[in-house]
Amino acid sequence: MNADVARLLEDLRLLGPSGLERAVEAWRRAGAAEDAVRTTAEKRAEDDPEWREAESEVFRIAQGEAWLAVDQTDRDSAVDAALDALLAVLEREKLDTGEYRRLAAPMAAVLPWLLSGEAEDLYR
Fold this sequence. Notes:
It contains seven helices and no strands.
């Protein structure tokens, strides 16, 4: 598993309910703009064993105490934000900068390293 995927999974384990809620809000704002990017990236990733392994881990993490403290609808949105970030990390070399940002930005609301080198953009 690559280092960025491992870091993302570890950070997801450490998120508390307030962090999850911030990610949910950012994911909902991003909404439809990332749908096309997500669909394309998912098609490329679905045959990747690293994607399948990490996706399963995201679902295991979502069964943790902090994640279960968030209501089901928000938890589902947080999982979607986490999966989008995972796609972004795994497909980074194949995505243009805008596509990467659209997928990673919601989770970057609580894990800013996902947009490393772009920190100034977070304060606009």
